[in-house]
Amino acid sequence: MLQLDEHASDVGYTTRLEAGLRSFANHLRREAGLVKPEPTRPRDDRLEPGDTVLVPYLDRLISRFWADSFTRAGYPAVVLEADEKALNTGYRYASGGECLPLVSIVGGAIEKLREGGLDPARTFFFMPTSCYACNFPQFNVLAELAFRTAGLGGVKIGQINGMALAERLPQSVAARIFESNIAAGLLYKLRYRIKPYERQAGQTVEVFDRAVERVSAAIREGGDLRAALSAVVEEFRAIPRDESAGRRPRVAVLGDLYVKYSEAANQRVLDLVESQGAELVLPSMTEYAFCYYYADVRFHGDDPRHYRLLRAIESRYEKLAADLIGEQLEPDFAEGVRLMEAWRVKHFIVGETSINLGRALYYLEHGGAEAVLHLNPMFCCPGVVTASIYRKMQEDYGVPIVDLFYEGTGNPNRILIPHLAYLRGK
Fold this sequence. Notes:
Elements: H1 10-31, E1 52-55, H2 62-72, E2 77-79, H3 84-93, H4 100-115, E3 123-125, H5 139-149, E4 156-157, H6 171-194, H7 203-221, H8 225-237, E5 250-255, H9 257-261, H10 269-275, E6 279-281, H11 286-300, H12 304-318, H13 322-325, H14 333-342, H15 352-365, E7 371-377, H16 381-397, E8 401-406, H17 416-425
Parallel strand pairs: 1-2, 1-3, 3-4, 5-6, 5-7, 7-8
Helix pairs in contact: 1-3, 2-6, 2-7, 3-4, 6-7, 6-8, 6-12, 7-8, 11-12, 14-15, 15-16
């Protein structure tokens, strides 16, 4: 059965038909006793000198800074593409029910291996995962199946805990990746806070682009990252701004880790929001780490000093721009949990539902946003659960919350335009 809906696409239907025919053929071969299914277990390969690291594309900052971190440690790293070709390839080798992030990342890896002439045995697929209410922990298993089917068996796949990178990666790489997440979050906050009010159109983007290059170089060359960010902040601070008419409507962007940041996955929805006269509020990627560390302290008795140390590191960086980003300083994750419990969500489960419920409540309780944009891939279980709870939150707080789900086709962003027009007219 081929489902037809508003996300119609010739390419999408073709890849699904191909996947269906392959599944039918495999079934018939198994029924005839011609093949026996082989069990697939998680790989746990180790990164070794000389390996080329494939870095998944989350966005133009985070993924680039991750690659810089590996390069600094002596491991050549390339960032995967997240274009239509990667998506089509991913759908060809996925089973058909996976969410957009997995399909895009696996397709990008296959294309990079083929086009870059990389030796699978000397290529390390960096896909850190974590155990929470999602199929995320199974990403590497399906990647292995897809690589094999594509004739690329032997690609190294690490069993990497995204919350404990140093267990499998060099300590220097793990530390730089955490710091690069902080740096990327800070750059985004500066860009989106200042751009709506710039006097000279385009100046903020020019400063932002230079900032990306400066921070990238600091990470890649082992420079002083805090000093680089300090210089960047001064450039943003020097941009002439006009806020005499007051703040524009602030739209908080929440949702899935991949779709929230990736302009390829969300079809440049952040550009659309800005073009319609709103100010974007984007949380730092570090909220994921703090969700897990908080849970480890609360439920498993871990030493809270680790959590406090990482909070102090992030605060040290954000203080450089505290006067500019103001209310967008990262809150303590415990505050979001407290607000959830006060709102009668008592059952705290580690994962994106708790992250996004707590963050939305934080913004709404502290007047940090006039609307919430909730972005997820199609089939995202945490996204569907969160969207259902957001209906009650929208009713209680009287703030619009718009849910958008993506699967690579159609144009779901168009439904935002009347919502944004309403915000401008309030």
